[in-house]
Design brief:
It is built from 13 helices and 14 strands. The protein is an alpha/beta fold and about 350 residues long. α3 packs across α9 and α3 packs antiparallel against α12.
């Protein structure tokens, strides 16, 4: 099924949820529908969201969506993926055509306030970088003075690019498009000297080039890009489910809970916090309107955060992206989730 056809089906299937208001309303609408509708990137980004020829989805964004479906339904397959270009993503969320966004979109002041969105945490701490062809001999950003630079329209990367070059008295010519795919095509065709985006996205996108080894990502980072799931500010109960699903993935890694051992730990662990997390004590699932063993369903379906990162972006993937700031706080990274108590 073509992605455009899929999106049309998704839009029709959830149109009735666009005017929801009130705590619990969106949760009820999703449960009544029998599936979560999750907006992702376009299905061409290795490691984040990829749709293969057989119709199978994979990637970090996809695994997070499947985790939320497992939390709400006990079944990670009860999710419909809506592939969205960046220019359409926020409108889709505002209209109610999707229940949430799990595609690369940085947490910013304006999106949180003026656009009336809630971010349900950060699943990837990233920074804006630059992808260039090695043959240009560019080793630092100052070498891009006077360069043409590909960038996506209407994004924080476009604004960050302008701010950085103006602040540092550097000249550049923006080559603006509406998609990651067009930016990469322009870079390969020599229409621009560099492509700027989140470094994680650049590392994944580089693999899709015809000669990826001919390109390099510069070391310098010009802006923070905290990426995470986004929901409307219309149902605190749904926001809590989205947030605590993410927190659970992080806490599970911290506690050594994996897809391989979660069933055993659910019955055998003597750790009080693990007992609360996995539903043995405390009715903590009920507090979210979920089954008490919801975390067992989540971790058995997708694994903990470390497992998700490794198979999609890390050492177990073609991308080979270092964890870096996306390591647990106890290992020198920024990942830190509230405790279950």
């Amino acid at each position: 099924m073509k992605k455009t056809m899929l999106w049309g089906i998704v839009g029709l299937s959830v149109m009735a949820t666009s005017a929801l208001a009130g705590e619990g309303d969106r949760v009820k609408a999703i449960k009544d529908r029998g599936e979560l509708v999750c907006g992702t990137s376009t299905g061409t980004t290795i490691g984040l969201s990829t749709l293969d020829a057989s119709g199978k989805w994979a990637g970090l964004e996809i695994d997070y969506c499947r985790a939320v479906a497992a939390a709400m339904f006990g079944d990670p397959d009860k999710v419909k993926f809506a592939p969205l270009e960046f220019k359409n993503a926020f409108a889709a969320l505002q209209s109610g055509s999707v229940d949430m966004l799990a595609r690369a979109a940085a947490w910013t002041y304006t999106r949180d306030t003026e656009m009336k969105f809630d971010y349900a945490g950060v699943y990837m701490y990233d920074g804006q970088g630059f992808l260039v062809k090695k043959s240009l001999g560019v080793s630092k950003l100052a070498d891009l003075n006077g360069a043409s630079i590909c960038v996506s329209a209407g994004t924080t990367t476009e604004l960050n690019l302008s701010d950085y070059f103006r602040t540092n008295s550097l000249e550049y010519t923006p080559i603006v498009t509406n998609s990651r795919e067009q930016n990469l095509a322009n870079l390969e065709a020599g229409r621009c000297d560099a492509y700027t985006n989140e470094r994680g996205g650049l590392a994944a996108s580089r693999l899709g080039l015809s000669a990826p080894d001919e390109y390099v990502i510069l070391d310098e980072i010009i802006a923070k890009e905290p990426l995470g799931p986004i929901v409307q500010q219309d149902d605190p109960a749904f926001r809590d489910i989205a947030a605590w699903t993410l927190f659970t993935l992080i806490n599970a890694e911290e506690k050594g809970i994996t897809s391989a051992n979660v069933a055993e730990m659910a019955t055998g662990s003597e750790n009080p916090e693990i007992q609360r997390m996995l539903g043995k004590t405390g009715d903590f699932g009920v507090k979210l309107g979920l089954a008490n063993d919801w975390v067992v369903k989540v971790i058995s379906s997708v694994g903990n955060y470390g497992e998700i990162f490794d198979r999609n972006l890390g050492a177990g993937s073609p991308v080979k992206l270092a964890r870096g700031q996306n390591e647990l706080w106890s290992k020198g990274g920024l990942l830190y989730a509230p405790p279950v108590r």
